[in-house]
Amino acid sequence: NIFCGSEGTLGIITKAILRVYPKPTDYFHCFFAFNSIQENINLFQKIRDVFGDKLESAEIIPDIAIELSIKHGFLTRSFFSKKFSSFLLCKFSLFENKDTFEKFFLDKITKFNNKFEDVIFPQSLQQENNFWKFRDDLVEAYKLEGKYITNDISLPLNSLLKFIDVATKKINKVVYGTQIYSFGHLGDGNIHFNLIEPVNYEGNFNNARSEIYEIVNDLVEDFGGSFSAEHGIGLIKKKSLLKYKSFNELNLMKKIKHALDPNNILNPGKIFDLK
């Protein structure tokens, strides 16, 4: 684990042994709609408890993602007939008959009908592909809206709603009207807490970048999360690593680096400086 998370600073992989798992025989998809993020989290936890490892993907998506995807031409209209505030896109890996699983799924979901407002089950392969294409395209949609600030964080699920609420209020004190574009992988708590400049904003949103990063990262630390979830430290987050890791943790990391790379030739300058 130390080597895999070292971002190339401890060595070069010359050989890898892979554990091969059986390929699923089929997949099952569904798209839920909610009136709140808390409802979204509650249903996800129910689904995870019931279906366990069959749940391959669970993506939390905000309403603004649909709005901007329509605005910038990635969608012609919403998948849903009504407006909702939060969505959950799920994919299940199947090793049994799809029809059998669907009957079991519907039986369980019926008992959770007070946990969500609407749900869509794709009626064709094309509709399944459209769901996941939208998930990919929503990343491009916000980039066309104006200047933006991205945050790759992870949080415990029981802290996610409170974090978003507190962070939104603090960020609005810095730049009022900042658009919150928060989406990500609910299964592991990895959230892209992205921020878009306000509509018709006349200032330079990038001027608030450092202050907003500090607000977000401090809150993530307070809520027991991590300021870097999927995308590592690299160069951009070196200062954050120094701030949020203890002296002993950093010292140990440097000792390991020096022992394995005494000449500092492996991806030098990334994660931290040895001097």
Number of strands: 8
Q: What is the 3D shape?
A: globular
By CATH, the topology of the largest domain is Alpha-Beta Plaits
Q: What is the percentage of strand-forming residues?
A: 15-25%
Order of secondary-structure elements: EHEHEHEHEEHEEHHH
CATH architecture of the largest domain: 2-Layer Sandwich
The description of the largest β-sheet is: 8 strands, antiparallel
How many angstroms separate the termini?
25 Å
Query: With helices defined by DSSP (H or I, 4 residues minimum), what is the helix count?
Result: 8
Give a nutshell description of this structure.
The protein has helices at 37-51, 63-71, 98-110, 125-143, 157-174, 209-222, 238-244, 247-260; strands spanning 26-34, 55-62, 86-94, 118-120, 148-149, 152-154, 179-185, 190-196.
Describe this structure in words.
The protein contains eight helices and eight strands. It has 275 residues and is of the alpha+beta class. It has two domains: 26-143, Alpha-Beta Plaits (2-Layer Sandwich), CATH 3.30.70; 148-222, Alpha-Beta Plaits (2-Layer Sandwich), CATH 3.30.70.2740. Strands 1, 2, 3, 4, 5, 6, 7 and 8 form an eight-stranded antiparallel sheet that branches. It is globular, with a radius of gyration of 21 Å. The mean pLDDT is 92. One of its GO terms (biological process) is respiratory electron transport chain. Residues 31-271 form the FAD-binding oxidoreductase/transferase type 4 C-terminal domain. Keywords: FAD, Flavoprotein.
